[in-house]
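We close this part of the discussion by returning to an individual protein. The sequence in question and its C-alpha cells are set out directly beneath this paragraph:
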Amino acid sequence: MNFLIEIADSINGRELSMFIAGVDEAGRGPVLGPLVFAGVLIEENDIPELIGLGVKDSKLLQPSKRESFAIVILKLAIKTSMKVVSPKEIDDARANGLNLNKLEAQCFAEIINQLNPDITYVDAADVNPERFSQRIKNNLVVDTKLVSQHRADYDIPVVSAASILAKVERDKIVNELKRFGDIGSGYCHDPRTISFLKEWVIKNGELPSFARHSWITAKKILSEIKQTNLENFTENEK
C-alpha cells in the first residue's frame, strides 16, 4: 500500500493531525563499534515535505549526503530519540540469553516509548515481521499503531529518516575509533578490520574494548592467536 494512502486511511475521521514515527538502527552486523538506534517523530502534515527531500535508506547515500539530510531532518522533526548500545552491552545481553533480535526489539520499544507516536513504522530486524512487532509491543508503555515490515528503511520515508540519523551517529563514533589505527569499516568481511584485530590481539593479548567479543569472528581471531602463541612457547621450551 502507498505510504501516504496508508496514513490517510489511519487518520480517516480525525480532525487533529497525528504524529508519525519511524525507528531504525545502524550497525547490527559489524564486529567493531556500537549498535545505534534512532527514532524520528514527525507531524503527518509534514510527511510530504519529508518525501520531497528525497530521503532514502542511509545505505544508499554517500556520507556527505547523509549528513546534510540529517541537518534538515532534525529541523523538520518534532522530536528525535537516539540510543547507543556499546559492544560490551551487546556481549552482556547475549551472555544473558538475549539474542540480537530480542535486544533490538527492546531498544526499538524504548525509542517508541520516548516518542509516544500515534503510528510507528519500524524496519523489521526479524525474518518474521509479526514476531518482531509482538516483541516490541511486549515492551511498550505507550499506545501506538505499530507497523513492522522488511525494507521499511527503503519504502517508508520516516523510517529512512531514522536510518539516516542512526547511520550518521554510528559513523561519527567509528571515525573517532580510527585514532587506534586503520580499523577499516568495522565489518567482518573487511580485510582491514580483520588485520587490525589480529595486530591488536598480537600486541595486547586481548581484543579491544570496542570490539564485540561475542562475535564468531572476534572469538576465532583471539583463539587462533592464543593457540599460535602457545605453540610457539611450547616449541621454545623444547
Remarks:
- Residues 216-237 form the longest helix (22 residues).
